[in-house]
Amino acid sequence: DGGITQSPKYLFRKEGQNVTLSCEQNLNHDAMYWYRQDPGQGLRLIYYSQIVNDFQKGDIAEGYSVSREKKESFPLTVTSAQKNPTAFYLCASTSGTGRNNEQFFGPGTRLTVL
Amino acid sequence: GQQVMQIPQYQHVQEGEDFTTYCNSSTTLSNIQWYKQRPGGHPVFLIQLVKSGEVKKQKRLTFQFGEAKKNSSLHITATQTTDVGTYFCAGPRTGANNLFFGTGTRLTVIP
Lengths: 114, 111
What we know:
The complex is a heterodimer of chains A (114) and B (111). Chain A contains no helices and eleven strands. Chain A has strands at residues 4-7, 10-13, 19-25, 31-37, 43-51, 54-57, 64-66, 76-78, 87-94, 104-105, 109-113. In chain A, the strands form two sheets. In chain A, strands 2, 4, 5, 6, 9, 10 and 11 form a seven-stranded mixed beta sheet that branches. A four-stranded antiparallel beta sheet of chain A has the order 1-3-8-7, with no helix packed on it. The termini of chain A are far apart. Chain B has 111 residues and is mostly beta strands. Chain B has strands at residues 4-7, 10-14, 19-25, 32-37, 43-49, 55-58, 61-65, 71-76, 85-92, 99-101, 105-110. In chain B, the strands form two sheets. In chain B, strands 2, 4, 5, 9, 10 and 11 form a six-stranded mixed beta sheet that branches. In chain B, strands 1-3-8-7-6 form a five-stranded antiparallel beta sheet, with no helix packed on it. In chain B, strand 6 (55-58) and strand 7 (61-65) form a beta hairpin. The interface between A and B is medium-sized, with 25 and 23 residues.
């Protein structure tokens, strides 16, 4: 089955620790995205990548970092500089440019920082 | 900056009643997409509208794109408990190759 996988589903970390969320897709999509969703809120773009070895900041990139070394993978690191990291993190991908094509979402990772 | 607002933010309906959510963009959009997110789940693509005044139907769901391509609506006829979730609209972000998501409308259906 083609799709996007995110692991783990639930993640707990202590304050001050960096944590990396994984996102893998086997859809052969060029573009990948990371969103943050807070309870009862919409989707806010953190980072996106249109091509391997290239990525751009979204609306709320501060305190986050990403890499895109392989087409299939777009891991997100939540650093200790992120002041309020507890949230639901969604990874998505799309074919083409991303302006005109549907986005496919992974199941998400719910991060809780204690 | 670019804004995409949805109203209402929350809606409770009795099962069998109709439901409508409205999406309003601060900018003209080349297309608009709709997504549904079930409680505890992830957004799933429903449909894309491209043409001015376009109307598309999926069973009990009717989607419209405004003549000026700055607003859209989703209407559900005779809601069912399976319709529960948050509905998001999304349009191309100005000057970038990604989408700008609306604030969402959370639908609760009371059996």
